[in-house]
Amino acid sequence: MSYRVLGALLAGLLATSSLASAQQATPVPDSKGDFSSMMFLLGTWNCKTTKSSGGRGAGRTETDVTTMVMDGHYMQTDGTSKPFDAARTKTITTRSWVGYDTKTKSWYSFGMGNFGGFGMSTSPGWVGNAMVWTDKYASDGGDLGKTTVTKVSDTKTTSTAVTKTAKGTKTTSDACIKAS
């Protein structure tokens, strides 16, 4: 074998090995929260508004379907609520996600609906059988509040949302039963 061929072969091998080492990917962090305390929420839930101090919505029903998405990084809930009074003549549909921030060690939720609303809230997690969510953002400058979700059992939850408005405090309560 001539030195020229050997030199070209050696140069080719070095270029190939340099290219291969340059193309090695840097691992992307894949941190996700421990959803074990939340797994009971997966499935279909039927919810009913049991109290609404605003005078609207008491008796409103909603069906929520919760699944794990994005390789287990988020719980996604799709909600549907049929028209429930003269002002809501259109079905409300919502989509929301719950994730966990491993750096701040807190849960976050964000969601939107077909009426254009968007909101975000955070929670430090379960304390006993209760989880308190604090609103951080509501679209169009909406009022912010706190919602306490109580796990009654693996198949029943209740929640109470308290929101301070310019007109006073608004309280809404819901009860949810797991269908499947």
Description:
This protein is mostly beta strands and 180 residues long. It has one domain (35-178): Calycin beta-barrel core domain (Lipocalin), CATH 2.40.128.20. The chain is 11% helix and 51% strand. It has one helix and eleven strands. The chain has one helix spanning 3-22; strands at residues 43-52, 61-69, 74-81, 92-101, 106-113, 118-123, 126-127, 130-138, 145-153, 156-165, 168-178. It has a ten-stranded antiparallel barrel with strand order 1-2-3-4-5-6-8-9-10-11. A hairpin with an 8-residue loop joins β1 (43-52) and β2 (61-69). The longest helix is centred in the N-terminal third of the chain and has 20 residues, at 3-22. The protein is globular, with a radius of gyration of 25 Å.
List the helices and strands and how they pair.
Layout: H1 3-22, E1 43-52, E2 61-69, E3 74-81, E4 92-101, E5 106-113, E6 118-123, E7 126-127, E8 130-138, E9 145-153, E10 156-165, E11 168-178
Antiparallel strand pairs: 1-2, 1-11, 2-3, 3-4, 4-5, 5-6, 6-8, 7-8, 8-9, 9-10, 10-11
Gyration radius (Cα, Å) is 25 Å
**CATH third-tier fold name:** Lipocalin
Using the alpha-carbon principal axes, give the shape: globular
**Which architecture does the CATH hierarchy give at level 2?**
Beta Barrel
Helical percent range?
Answer: 10-25%
DSSP, total strands: 11
Mean pLDDT: 87
CATH class: Mainly Beta
Order of helices and strands: HEEEEEEEEEEE
Beta-strand fraction estimate = over 45%
CATH superfamily, please?
Calycin beta-barrel core domain
Strand order of the largest sheet: 1-2-3-4-5-6-8-9-10-11
Major sheet description: 10 strands, antiparallel, barrel
Structural class: mainly beta
